[in-house]
Amino acid sequence: MVCGALTRVVVLSAASVVIGATMTPAPAPATPGPQREQVVQFGRYDYTVDTTNPLPTQADNWPFQVLQRGYAGQVTSLRDAETTKQPMTFLFYVDPMVIRPSDFLGYTTALPASWVQMYHPDWLLRDARGDMIGRSDNDGDIMLDPGNPGYQELAGDNLVAILAEGGWAGIMLDELNQTWSWTMTDPPARYPTVQSWDAAEVALVKTVCGKVIAA
User: Fold this and answer.
1) Which of 27, 73, 144, 196 is packed most tightly, with the most Cβ within 10 A?
2) 149: number of CA atoms within 13 Å, CB side?
3) Cα–chain-centroid distance for residue 214?
4) Which of 21, 4, 2 is nearest to 66 (CA)?
């Protein structure tokens, strides 16, 4: 799913979207030499810390890096390791489809789980019995309702505030599932059809994209 100006939106896969960063190719060198490949670094476990490649290798080969916000401190180290003229671009990882009780501060989600559970349990996705829906892999994540306008608005506002505070260039939205069955065992009561589920996800992405791009 893509929304906004193409120079500021990059589709990484069928399940994730990057917004806020400008993908501008580096100018060609005056003399032949190694070209810096325009790719995003996904060599991190859960977008945390790359322990396989030394910092200079990361800095000079992957101009776009995706990190969880909890590992923002590594940005300075990578900046110091840069030896090329093209500065690195840092994006932070977000899974906007869930709340994650195991992530107390909400470093990997759009909003902290404790806040949503206390103030807006109505934003949680439920099945026909009224029970909250978790991910099918039983990892403890609880699905959010992507079509809820209140959630869409606050998620976008919070991510914009994080961008401004942390100096990030953009965000990566992960787990934008093409069908609910891709990640959930029980169908959500509000979205009985694939079309209704798709429309809810598109509305979430449009709202968040719009706020980030306008910021």
Assistant:
1) 144
2) 0
3) 17
4) 21
Residue position matching structure tokens 């919070």? 158
CB 96 within 8 A of CB 116: no
Integer Cα distance of 181 and 32 in angstroms: 50
Q: Encoding tokens for residue 125? A: 């996705």
**Number of C-alpha atoms within 13 angstroms, CB side, residue 180?**
28
DSSP at 186: S
Encoded tokens for 207: 């709202």
Mean pLDDT confidence for 27-55: 49
Between CA 80 and CA 199 the distance in angstroms is 43
DSSP 85: S
- Token representation of residue 77: 């180290």
Other beta carbons less than 10 A from residue 90's beta carbon: 20
| 8 A C-beta contact, residue 62 and residue 41 | yes
Report how far Cα 103 is from the mean position of its chain's Cα atoms.
Answer: 15
Query: 206 to each of 88, 101, 146, 173, 185, how far by Cα in Å?
Result: 26, 26, 11, 12, 26
Query: Taking the CA of residue 196 as centre, how many other CA atoms within 13 Å lie in the half-sphere pointing to its CB?
Result: 9
pLDDT, averaged across the chain: 77
Q: Which residues contact 85 (CB under 8 A, 6 or more apart)?
A: 26
- The conformation of residue 121, written as its DSSP 8-state character, comes to G
Give 151's contacts (C-beta < 8 A, 6+ positions apart): 111, 120, 123, 144, 145, 204
Please say if the pLDDT value at position 197 is more than 60. yes
Please report which confidence band the pLDDT of residue 111 belongs to, taking 50, 70 and 90 as the band edges: very high
